[in-house]
Each structure stands twice: as structure tokens, then as C-alpha cells.
Design a protein that fits this description.
The complex is a heterodimer of chains A (about 280) and B (about 525). Chain A is built from ten helices and no strands. With about 280 residues, chain A is mostly helical. Chain A has a domain at about 80-265: MetI-like (MetI-like fold), CATH 1.10.3720. In chain B, strand 5 and strand 6 form a beta hairpin. The longest helix of chain B has 19 residues, at about 1-20. Classes of the chains: A mainly alpha (about 280), B alpha+beta (about 525). The interface of A and B includes residues 214 and 239 of A.
């Protein structure tokens, strides 16, 4: 509760928005509000109204359950991918920052190679090799967010490695697992958490971009990107298809970014405020 | 304070978008000439550059040899250069083309009287030898169309302007089979002396010649001198841009950079409604979507006919036509709906059975919890059709995972391996101009392209042979119904619904000639008549 009281209204708003988004999605999905997201229940392209709260799409499917499914897919895929990224980037960052030497050089060069690819080009490359779908989307998010997180974790690991308590542990003969788990990871956790929120927003954007291009989740499964892609054709004749998922996507990314910003200010108060 | 501003901007965008969805006027072309969506205004002066856009360029995968061309997009392009002995009218009647008339002295004999003054684009006059040589080359080659031209026994030159064709048995669709690009008359003299390689360049008797081609990017055709039809073609140049994205083609039509585009979205008439200077014609075609169930699928998923029949029973063709095709398609059997003599899809064995019967068949076959992959290409409206199929099959407990692929990847997956390794796939056939023609593709030993995923069925082959041999009349109607029933029961390739063709054009820039119906997927059929209003 201390953090809640000390954080600013923007951070709290971000967290509340995220919580509401997740809660609404879970409740909507678990209780099947709006019906089966794949069922063709109504007239094609019906506008929002009493029977279909968010209207229907070009196949007569109610948009409300499809939106619940879309938010769930996007958040779940992005979160899972970022968790994998966090583990890998922590190991790679510590290897490069703490152990250094040739291992650090190899890790950082690989990271730089990945970093040199434009985001969406890398994602399309992965989708082309692995085939479109959820696996390709997750792999893309992981490959795109790993360089970002690894570089920051490495920089923090270099600093932590020079701290007296680490030197003392080494002199006292502590093994690397103990140094890793007792000294490095706990002191890097703030950095990892902050970078995780940033990676999550990047992940949502990548999922949206890939699905928009048709390389992401496959029909009839929906995601925010897929819903926007399908609705974009009907922007002028059935704008509800793209506006609602578009707003949700914007809100989700904004909420994650401002929450991450506040988290960083709380954990690393001396640094200047920045979204990155 | 950035967030409130951003949210305000989003809300404003939403309001603006909603406001722009105001009701607008109808933009469907109207023609007073029966059988036509539009007829070019002959009072308009000839000349100018015609800018077209289409979805794919099949030039590289299948080459430029018209006898090997096996997809409608190739036929569209090649029809600008190559011509056939006969063509089809707007009511699917057979009309003269390079043959100005023909006689049919017996059910197995056809005598073609060639048109005078026809030349290839290199200036050489077309002769009876070119016609005979083209037939012989087609029959000796590997193209799938040799199956369609039937049991040709002998082709002989009677004189310089007369060619006789003898069939080994009566074959009702013979003339209709000659009306498609693979049966075009080729410059046999140049092919035989090696002065032209028609797999790499096009040399025909048609109204245009190829000026340039960039694979998957564009084609440029120019009008040729000495074309036999006086005053044709009207346009000096035809530029065809390959634009895979539906939105890109729509945008090109809206901003006027294209005069005519092929559209896949069945809502295109509404989407372009009210866009000043545009019109969208919906051509009823005999083409139809069908579902392929691979009899060689891994795990033997579809080798039991009961499983295939259960899937066929669960197909709600009306739902596909209404939901996926916006009511523009029609349920059909293997004889395309709309052609004379075609069978009534409501009378098919699968249409008369209910879902309980489908579930029972699955239970008997031990396939109650069947799951399979459905490969569909990503060009609209195929993904929508696939999703309705998925919903249809969910009703009998079958789980379908859709794999959406670009057309090249889809083609490689479905036709690239023998035996094929896919589970199921969605595609469409052109329905041609005779109700029995497309049925020939249900004999894999003759069609060839489906040997990898289809097992021959002797009973079905008998029904095919009977339908194509029986002359028009009540007896043929019965034969066609039997063919429909046999295909329906075999259920290795399941006919679903007819495929509408949507053609968008600039009504302020172009006066086109468009049939109301089309059997060979060729919307460029009247291109020699197209008149440009502003160029």
C-alpha cells in the first residue's frame, strides 16, 4: 500500500486500466457474455444496439465476445512471450555483464544483430519460417524484445557486479549460483520489472502488427490486431468493427507504459522520468 | 495531460468515421442489353491507355504456354493475345471466333470454316495447318485441358480454310471446351521452326501484343496492327498492375489510378457506394467453391467415405452463400448452378440427410472427435468461406483448424506432393459453359492434378462419361442429376457455392463491355471493346 500511496495518479490510472481490462476480459470469457465468439448468430455488419452490444462483423458474429477473445489472446500471447523474454534476457544480460569476456562479446554481438532488424521485418521473417499462427507470434515477440531487455540488464549487471557485497561474496568463496540468486537477480529485479512492462507494450504492438498483416493468429480466433485488420476494410461503412478494438489497443498500451514509468520511478527514483 | 488529449482524438476519429458512413446511392452498373452488365459506348472515340489491376500474376509458375495454363487468372491475361476457334456469348451460347462457322454432320464430326484475314501478330496469316498443329500439340502435351476437349480421334486439314475434327464418341461439351484459352490457335510454323518459344513469349492472333512484363509487378500490352476485327481493339495500351491487397485495389479505383480492378470482398458494392465516378458490377459466374478432402491424408482421416459423407451432410451451403458471400453466391452441385440442365442442389443425397445422420456416420466410422487442418488461401472471400465451413462442422463435433496461406504457398501445399500431405483444402473451379465439363475434374486419372489427394471411383467415372456423352434433352438432365449424386456420395471434392466475380471500374473514365454471366473466369472477355472516356 505504501507504493500505491506514493505513486502519482498517472501510474495508478495505468494500473487500474490494466486491471479493469483483464477483469472484464476474464469475466466476459468465463461467463460467455455475448455468446460464442465464433458463432454466426446475427445479420452481417449489424450496428451496435440492444441485441448486439458492439454490433456484428462481416460474418454475422457478435463483436462483444470476439472483443473479449481478442483482448485475451493479445494479452496472453504478449505476457507469455515477455515472461520467456525476461528469463532469457536476465540470463544473457548477466552472462554479458557479470562474466564478460568472450561470452559477453558473443552475447552482445548476437543481441546487436537482432537489434539491427526492423521490428516488423523480423516478425514477418519468423512468421515466414515458422508459418503464421500463435507460435510464430510468440517467437517474434521474444526475438524482438530480447535485445531491448538484454542490453539494459547487462548494463545494470555491470554496475551490480562492481558492488562491494558481490566482491565480498566472491572473496568469501561463494559459488556462482549463490552469487546469481542472492546478489545479482534480486538487485536486477527492478530493472527487469520495468523493462518487462515496456516489453509487454512492444509485444502487444507486435502481435497487433503481425495479425494486421495476416501473419498472426489465424481465423476464426480473434486478437486485437486481427479484429482491426478485419475491420479496416469496413472503416467507413461499419466503423464499430475497428474503432472499439482500436481504442482498447491504445488504452492497453498507454496503461502499460504509464504503469511501467511509475514503477520505474518507484524502484529507481533517481532516474529522470522516461517511458523507456 | 497527454492521455485525455489522445482519448479525445480517438473519440473524434470515431465520430468522424461514423458520420462518414452516411447512406449513399447505388453504384451498380445498368445495361439495357440482355445478358450484359455494361456495354461499351461505341460513340466514344478509340484510343488511350487502359489501367487495370488484378490479384496475382501466374506467368512465372505456369509459364506463358497457353496450353499449360490451368488457372483463370492466366486465361484472363492470355486472352489479350490468344484466340480460340469459338467463343461463348453472354447466355453461354457458342459463338464464332477464329472459325466463322462450323458444321456438325454427325455427333462425332465437326467441320470448322476458318475466318479469312486472320493473322498472327508477326503478320503471318493463320492457316488450317496452325489449327491442326495446335490440336495435335494439345493432345500430345501435358496440359490438363486435353482432358476437356474430349475423345478427339483425328484432326485433318480439308483445305486452307477448313479443318475437320473427328471424335471417337459423342462428346457434348466439345465446342464449349474449344472456347477457352488452352484451346487457342497457336503459331505452329514458328513453334516448329524454333523462331518463337511460346513458353517465354506470347504470339497469337488476338487484339494485343505484350510490350513488357515484370513478374508479380505489371504487364503492358499494346494494340497490334492488322487485327482481323475492324476497329478493334479500342484502347492503344493496356497496363495491368498486379496488386495483391484488396485495399490497394480499392484505393487505386477510388483515386482514379486504375480504370478497372478485380475485387474479392463481397461487400465491395457497399464499400464503394457513393464514391463518385465508380461502379461495381457483380458478375454471376458458373465458377464454384469446393472442399477437397484428401483421401491420402496422414492418419487416414478421410479414406473412409462415411467420414467424407458426414462432412458433406454438415455443409450448410445456404449459410456459406449468405454469410461468407453476402448472398451473392448460390448453392450448387457439381453441375454449376445457372447452367442449362444443372441439377438442383436441394435434391442431392447430402441435402436430404440431417445432422443426426452425419453424427451417426462419424460414429460408425469411429471418427467422432475428428480434428483436421483446412488450408485456405488468403484472397477474399476464401477465408470467410473457410470460417463458415468451420462453424458448419462444429455442429457435428468436428474441429477444423484453418491454415490461411498466400496463393503460392497454398498451391505448393495442395498440388506440390504426390501423395498429398494436407488434410483438407478450399479452392474454386471455373464452371465453364456446359454443365458436364467441370465434372471431368472428378476423374483424377484424367485430370491429373488431383491424383495426389483423390482416389479414382469407377461408379463416378461412369456417371461422368454418361453425362458428357448424352445429347441435350431429358435424358441428359437425368444423367447430370446422376453425376451430381455420384459426386455428392463420393465426397472427395465437395461442391459448395458459386463464386461471384466483382468488377470495380471508373464509370467516369471507362465504358466497358461486361457479361452478366461468365463461365471461364475471364472478366477481360470484352476488353477489345472497352472505350476510354477521358484519355
Amino acid at each position: 500500500m505504501t507504493w500505491w500511496r506514493e505513486s502519482d495518479w498517472l501510474t495508478r490510472s495505468g494500473l487500474v486500466c490494466l486491471a479493469v481490462l483483464v477483469l472484464v476480459t476474464v469475466v466476459g470469457t468465463v461467463f460467455g457474455i455475448g455468446g460464442d465468439p465464433g458463432a454466426m448468430v446475427g445479420p452481417r455488419l449489424a450496428p451496435p444496439g440492444g441485441e448486439y452490444l458492439l454490433g456484428t462483423d462481416q460474418l454475422g458474429r457478435s463483436m462483444l465476445p470476439r472483443l473479449f477473445e481478442g483482448i485475451g489472446t493479445t494479452l496472453l500471447l504478449s505476457t507469455l512471450a515477455v515472461l520467456v523474454t525476461a528469463v532469457l534476457a536476465t540470463l544473457l544480460g548477466i552472462a554479458a555483464g557479470y562474466y564478460g569476456g568472450w561470452l559477453g562479446e558473443v552475447v552482445m554481438r548476437l543481441v546487436e544483430v537482432l537489434y539491427s532488424f526492423p521490428t516488423i521485418v523480423l516478425a514477418i521473417l519468423v512468421a515466414a519460417v515458422a508459418g503464421p499462427g500463435q507460435a510464430a507470434t510468440m517467437c517474434s515477440i521474444i526475438l524482438i524484445t530480447i535485445p531491448l531487455m538484454t542490453r539494459v540488464v547487462r548494463a545494470s549487471a555491470v554496475t551490480v557486479a562492481e558492488r562491494d557485497y558481490v566482491t565480498s561474496a566472491v572473496i568469501s568463496g561463494a559459488g556462482w549460483p549463490r552469487i546469481l540468486m542472492r546478489h545479482l537477480v534480486p538487485n536486477l529485479s527492478g530493472t527487469i520489472a520495468v523493462q518487462g512492462t515496456y516489453a509487454l507494450s512492444v509485444g502487444i504492438l507486435v502481435e497487433g502488427g503481425l495479425s494486421f498483416l495476416g501473419f498472426g493468429v489465424q481465423p476464426p480466433q480473434s486478437s486485437l490486431g486481427a479484429l482491426i485488420q478485419q475491420g479496416s476494410t469496413y472503416l467507413l461503412t461499419a466503423p464499430w468493427l475497428v474503432i472499439v478494438p482500436g481504442i482498447v489497443l491504445i488504452v492497453a498500451i498507454l496503461a502499460i507504459n504509464v504503469f511501467g514509468d511509475g514503477l520505474r520511478d518507484g524502484l529507481e527514483p533517481r532516474e529522470a522520468r522516461s517511458l523507456v | 495531460m497527454r492521455i485525455p488529449r489522445i482519448l479525445c482524438a480517438v473519440a473524434a476519429t470515431a465520430v468522424l468515421a461514423s458520420c462518414s458512413a452516411a447512406p449513399v446511392s447505388d453504384n451498380a452498373p445498368t445495361s439495357e442489353v440482355p445478358g450484359y452488365l455494361a456495354v461499351a459506348d461505341e460513340a466514344v472515340t478509340s484510343g488511350g491507355t487502359l489501367d487495370l489491376q488484378m490479384t496475382v500474376d501466374n506467368g512465372a509458375p505456369t509459364g506463358l504456354d497457353p496450353q499449360l495454363a490451368d488457372v483463370a487468372t492466366s486465361w484472363q491475361l492470355m486472352s489479350l493475345v490468344y484466340e480460340t476457334l469459338v467463343t461463348v456469348g453472354p447466355d453461354f451460347s457458342i459463338e464464332p471466333a477464329l472459325a466463322e462457322s462450323w458444321d456438325n454432320p454427325s455427333p462425332t464430326e465437326y467441320v470448322f470454316n476458318l475466318r479469312e484475314g486472320v493473322t498472327f501478330s508477326n503478320g503471318r496469316a493463320m492457316t488450317a495447318d496452325d489449327v491442326v498443329g495446335s490440336f495435335e500439340r494439345l493432345l500430345a502435351g501435358q496440359g490438363v485441358w486435353k482432358t476437356q476437349i474430349g475423345p478427339v480421334e483425328k484432326v485433318s486439314k480439308v483445305d486452307d480454310r477448313t479443318v475437320s475434327v473427328t471424335l471417337s464418341s459423342p462428346y457434348q461439351p466439345f465446342l464449349a471446351s474449344l472456347a477457352n484459352v488452352p484451346a487457342a490457335v497457336l503459331p505452329m510454323q514458328e513453334i516448329e521452326d524454333g523462331s518463337v518459344d511460346i513458353t517465354k513469349e506470347m504470339l497469337g492472333t488476338g487484339p494485343f501484343v505484350v510490350k513488357s512484363h515484370r513478374q508479380d509487378v505489371s504487364w503492358q500490352f499494346t494494340r497490334r496492327d492488322g487485327y482481323w476485327a475492324e476497329g478493334k481493339p479500342s484502347a492503344d495500351t493496356v497496363n495491368i498492375t498486379i496488386a495483391g491487397q484488396e485495399q490497394a485495389r480499392m484505393a487505386a479505383l477510388q483515386n482514379g489510378s486504375a480504370d478497372l480492378v478485380m475485387l474479392g470482398n463481397v461487400d465491395a458494392p457497399e464499400l464503394l457506394n457513393g464514391v463518385r465516378g465508380t461502379a461495381v458490377g457483380t458478375q454471376a459466374t458458373t465458377d464454384f467453391y469446393y472442399l477437397m478432402l484428401n483421401s491420402n491424408a496422414p492418419g487416414g482421416k478421410f479414406d473412409d467415405p462415411r467420414v467424407r459423407q458426414a462432412i458433406n451432410i454438415a455443409m450448410d451451403r445456404d449459410a456459406i452463400a449468405d454469410s461468407a458471400l453476402g448472398g451473392l453466391g448460390k448453392p450448387t452441385g457439381v453441375t454449376p448452378a445457372g447452367l442449362p440442365g444443372s441439377c438442383d442442389p436441394a435434391l442431392l443425397p447430402s441435402a436430404r440427410a440431417d445432422l443426426d445422420r452425419a453424427r451417426q456416420l462419424l460414429k460408425e466410422a469411429g471418427a467422432e472427435n475428428l480434428t483436421f487442418e483446412l488450408a485456405a488461401y488468403s484472397t477474399a472471400p476464401a477465408p470467410a468461406v473457410a470460417q463458415v465451413i468451420q462453424q458448419n462442422l462444429q455442429r457435428i463435433g468436428i474441429t477444423v483448424n484453418i491454415e490461411q496461406l498466400d496463393e503460392g504457398s497454398w498451391s505448393g501445399k495442395v498440388y506440390g506432393e504426390v501423395p498429398a500431405t494436407f488434410d483438407a483444402a478450399l479452392s474454386w473451379f471455373a464452371g465453364y459453359a456446359d454443365a458436364a465439363m467441370v465434372g471431368k475434374w472428378w476423374n483424377p486419372e484424367q485430370a491429373g492434378f488431383n491424383l495426389g489427394f483423390m482416389e479414382p471411383n469407377a461408379e463416378l467415372n461412369t456417371a461422368i462419361d454418361k453425362a458428357i456423352a448424352t445429347p441435350a434433352g431429358p435424358e441428359r438432365d437425368t444423367a447430370l442429376q446422376q453425376l451430381c449424386d455420384a459426386v455428392d456420395t463420393d465426397a472427395q471434392m465437395i461442391p459448395l457455392v458459386t463464386r461471384p466475380a466483382l468488377i470495380g471500374y471508373r464509370s467516369d473514365a471507362l465504358s466497358p463491355t461486361l457479361y452478366a454471366t461468365e463461365g471461364y473466369g475471364n472478366v477481360f472477355r470484352g476488353i477489345a471493346d472497352f472505350r476510354l472516356l477521358t484519355k
